[in-house]
Fold this sequence. Notes:
Helix content is 49%, strand content 10%. The protein is of the alpha/beta class. A 4-stranded mixed beta sheet has the order 3-4-12-9. It has a 3-stranded mixed beta sheet with strand order 5-8-14. The chain has a 3-stranded mixed beta sheet with strand order 6-7-13. Helix 8 packs antiparallel against helix 9. The longest helix is centred in the N-terminal third of the chain and has 60 residues, at 43-102. The N and C termini lie far apart (84 Å). Mean pLDDT is 76; it is low at 1-39, 281-302, 431-470 and 583-588. It is found in: Membrane. Pathway: Secondary metabolite biosynthesis.
Amino acid sequence: MTTFRRFKDAGTLFYNSEGSDGLSSSASKSRFLPRQSALGLSDCELAAYITSIRSLLQHHILHGLKRFRVSIVIGMITTIMLVLTVPVVVALWITQTRLRRAKLPYPPGPPAEPLLGHLRALPRTYDRGVYRRLADTYGGIVYLHVLGKPTVIINSEKIAIDLLEKRGVIYSDRPSFPLYDMIGWGDTLTFLPYGHNFLKTRKLIQDQLTRKKCIIFEDIQLAQRRILLQNLLTSPEQFSFHAKRFVVAVVLEITYGRKITSDDDQFLKDAEAFDKIVAQEPGSLSLRKASVLLTLSIVESTTTTESQRTVQEAKEYGISVVQDDLASGNARPSFCSLGLEELSREQQNSEEEIGRIKVSAFQLYAAGAETTWSAILTFFFAMVLHPDIQRKSQRELDEVLGHGTFPNYEDRDSLPYLTCVIYEVLRLDAPIVLRHHGMNGIFTGGIQSSHWVNLQILRLYLGMFTRLSSASGVPHRVMEDDVYEGMFIPKGSTIISNIRHMLTNEDVYHDPFTFCPERFLPKPDGYGEPLPDAVFGFGRRICPGRWLALSGLWVSVASVLAMFDIKPIQDDQGVDVLPKLEFHDSLTR
């Protein structure tokens, strides 16, 4: 192949018969030959001409290198300037933004002192009315800070939806809870900080507890319903234990595929241990003390080591039982077994993934049993105080189902008043852990002539209920500076949802402290007031087991009303002894 190359400044042609681009090498034996016929130059003239071309090429190459070096230097200077300038510009922008936002007011709140902030403005002892007074005085959103730690209290459901749901990407974090971390609750969905682990854990739980999937658990709840009614018939004085056994048995079978075989079952003992942990930990502190502990991340507990051991043993015991069942081929379908089998199929049996199933199952078991049991006890309490509502619910059951027929899930739409009773229980119960310390009354039962088939009277002396009721659920934490309706909410603020105030707000609910199921019926039969959805929380932290809890609560309440009258015990003079309530705030969600 013949190739010609022309150099602009020389006008000389070079010939390469091997096609090696004019490069001479021993391998290709390429030669550069002058073509005298074309140029008319002698060998000496050609040599001189080539020398001049070589000099010219060297000049251009050196000049190009110099320009290249200059470009490198300029590029380096530009890069250095960018490296130095961009952070400065960003810092100036952030500073300007914060200064601009700093000019915006915080949400309203009581007067604060330097350094201490609102510490001395908060009550020294427990006071369940402090949140309501703040809401009544300062409105739907209140700002406090203690020792420099900002706290925002949300008293309006609309504001909670605007921030915790519509802006959930920055309002779904949790503040630090060192005590709960130490006792072993820190890795549960409730207390996990917002991020990758939280999102994966939430998806794991929610995928198994959708409203549609909860239908497959109804047979389990109906089977345990029969045991609950039989136990109440046999020993009504132990109604609290029977209610606990019902919810633990349901959650246990759904979570681990295990059935409670006796009243000494290890899972029942664990449930009782969890109750003691919640009762002993400082959930009912004064708002002042709780604010200081959260601000300084101080751990205060006299039973931390024992609680930690109890929680850890329960986590390990639950998953080990399922793993043994899987190994022996005797595992029943459950949240835990299905999750472990899926990991095995996908070959993702990492310690992290197994641990996520272990902790999620533990939370379903511990928290699910606690909250549903609490609501059932509140139902008993409400029926004792409001016999007219109890009778109205029973009349609806008679009219729809007939005497002696137990309600099933397909009857829910036909029993609207009964469903409203349950929603009213949740509204006034929200969100709570109900305690019955010092139940010093005696329960009696007997058969009474009535239109009720085999009617068993539960004469309940409920005594002193100690109600560990959370005004707020578990606080959120905002991850970025934010502005809401012209008010500045600083990054890192603890966000408290005052759920109790939302569900007893006089602007939303008429006569809010009266037990009135009719409030949820549509007009003209009722008041058309909104359902208490806030009881389950907001946004990405909403309770993932709410559909399961609602179905279990409905079937137990409806069945008890179909079979029993619920009445208080009487004193020696035949006067009803009504129960009393004592309220304390606690973290339950």
